[in-house]
Amino acid sequence: MKAEIIAVGSELLLGQISNTNARFISSQLAELGIDVYYHTVVGDNPNRLVDSIKIAENRADLIIFSGGLGPTKDDLTKETISKHLNKNLVLDHHALIYIEDFFKRMNRKMTENNKKQALVLEGCTVLENKHGMAPGMFLSTKTHSYILLPGPPKEMEPMFQFEAKPILSKLLHNESIIKSHVIRFYGIGEAELETEVQDLLHNQTNPTLAPLASDGEVTLRLTAKSDTEEEAWKLIDAMQTEIFNRLGKFVYGYNNDSLASKLRDILVENNLTISAAESMTAGLFQSELAAVSGMGQALVGGMITYTEDIKIKQLGVKETTIKEFSVVSSPCAEEMAVRVKEKFGTNIGVGITGAAGPDGHGGQPAGTVWIGIAIDDSAPVSYKLNLSGMRNTNRLRAVKFTIHYLIRLLHDQGL
Amino acid sequence: MKAEIIAVGSELLLGQISNTNARFISSQLAELGIDVYYHTVVGDNPNRLVDSIKIAENRADLIIFSGGLGPTKDDLTKETISKHLNKNLVLDHHALIYIEDFFKRMNRKMTENNKKQALVLEGCTVLENKHGMAPGMFLSTKTHSYILLPGPPKEMEPMFQFEAKPILSKLLHNESIIKSHVIRFYGIGEAELETEVQDLLHNQTNPTLAPLASDGEVTLRLTAKSDTEEEAWKLIDAMQTEIFNRLGKFVYGYNNDSLASKLRDILVENNLTISAAESMTAGLFQSELAAVSGMGQALVGGMITYTEDIKIKQLGVKETTIKEFSVVSSPCAEEMAVRVKEKFGTNIGVGITGAAGPDGHGGQPAGTVWIGIAIDDSAPVSYKLNLSGMRNTNRLRAVKFTIHYLIRLLHDQGL
């Protein structure tokens, strides 16, 4: 099965947003073993959309659309496909009720044009939109399959995963089984990782190996094809063992793990609580932890101590520490960690202080970060980062590194 | 002039990366007033690349390629175009010297395949690559113009801006001036906004109007074309006045403004300080503020009070308040705002408490949020949100709404 993804929206052609939907859908199709040969982006123009559909029908079996299902006049994907395939648009009562409910819950007035969102192509399978109003559609003709998805990623992604993907899996029923497994690394660069597994990358057949870097992390996706699920996992296991022998110390997790979810698992399993005092990251560390559900068992709370005055008066860092060593220093980070741990009565205390940029801070150049960690009654430890990114990249890197550093410290204690 | 952007690279079709190059190039072309009708992504396959070029030549005058100029066997963009246009590849000595220097500076041995990067299409204008090795190319035939750019954004972006854009500007010499202006709205949905300006959208000619929604915000881009810059701004001003008459109360800023930068401007101008006590958002509100540089003058710090115990013992919320009204309630949010304001000695205190989801909290269903705000000695106020998204969407929406709510409250006080 060959697929093409057509994203519809003039905002894409104006460069207002990136076509992240094509990336998401492509990675999902790769997992299913469906080849994607082209992505197309076309504006909110029915003639050019029809031209794109005709070209796609010549070179793909499955055409996936994203965008243009909304309530406005610009939204014309289903109207255009309706004409092109000669299928009527019919009202989906279930979707209409959902849309009406949506407005009630939001306490907003429903305008007439919103009803248009409940129209679907005759004979299609309706794909439920649990995070927005416009439903999606799956439609098969004698020659092609069509999937229509909404444009906003928050609506499109769960709809694809939970509504469209199962339908595609069924369609592929008789083909070989594809299994995919992602190994997650931290503390090693992409180039360095590739050098370590160069021979495996070069000779890859089954499973295939695909490295990818983002936000300071590197992942390696292993994809195996086989007649049985068991055999596919066997192929993946053998390759994983080989990779582990070379790079095991950099592996922090798998698949949908994140540094934060990994930390949560360790904390919750060992009944540990955590608090943090954040300066430069101003709450981003704790917010990243809280982004993972179930963190409430471990994360108690903490402080954001943006000014020196607050560090001293509210948190209890000694004035002499700041005067002697500066606010961006190992002693200050460690004292922040110890004080917040005591104040909030947790097992672990974290202190983050630094200069996010663009300017320096506390006598240190932009990008300098000190991370202090105190665990129970052990002496606090600290680590210095020298980051070179822009302000918010530095803040996020500092947070990711802090989580990684803490995981390693807990790991060293046998947790 | 009509343009099409062709990105070449199997990693795009596998969903390993997003086609951010197309977004960047499109936004640059929009500034030049060049219409982009299609984006195409094609893999590292010469036959499919030639097919894409033929399709693009039928519908565009200017074809811009990104990717496939590197040293490896997969990199075949210029080789394919060379065959397709019947133009030889010739060695560019300047580029070769640059590549050799590059290896010397990096203290690495130059492998033979790297020389391939110095080959360019006969008769082209070479575009210098200041951040990598592969040069770009500009080539004109009787019917079309072609621009070849490298794939890595940090090489492509400066090359486009400083090498390709001036060439395109010259080509366009006699065409009109394009000016673009974005109005930013909060507190109104896309559909509702479009209903209010339906007639303007319907009759748009010059300026054109393009609405766009994301993360709870809506923007309206006004683009005017004229012979002089002054005339273009006049056209935009007239339309803006009309939009203001209808929707002024929802406008919070323009162009690159964000809710947080807007709030910073008001706080700094009026010498106001702010602190926050966050439960459900766990630091995200303060982190969003700190993401804007210059917020240090206003943001003092605050607390993350994730548990009831910490709300009571560290922040000083009355136990009876939580018992009587629950932890997700107007009195609790207001008390959090007042306590943090007092504790941190700021003009403004913010309290955010809610159930992010997937589960309910404090007897309230997932998505319920109470935002409390205390300003100086005025009585605290609060607002209830009923959100319907996933956990982290709800957290971000709550933060954005809090900033908006505070801007409105300050605005009502004449600030």
Automatic annotation (TrEMBL), chains A, B:
Species for this entry: Psychrobacillus soli
Listed Gene3D superfamilies: 3.30.70.2860, CinA-like, MoaB/Mog-like domain
All copies of domain MoaB/Mog, residue ranges: 4-170
Source organism, top-level taxon: Bacteria
SUPFAM superfamilies hit by this protein: CinA-like (SSF142433), Molybdenum cofactor biosynthesis proteins (SSF53218)
Signal sequence region: none
PANTHER family to which the protein is assigned, alphabetical: NICOTINAMIDE-NUCLEOTIDE AMIDOHYDROLASE PNCC (PTHR13939), NMN AMIDOHYDROLASE-LIKE PROTEIN YFAY (PTHR13939:SF0)
Family: Belongs to the CinA family.
Identification of the protein by name: Putative competence-damage inducible protein
Annotated Pfam families: CinA (PF02464), CinA_KH (PF18146), MoCF_biosynth (PF00994)
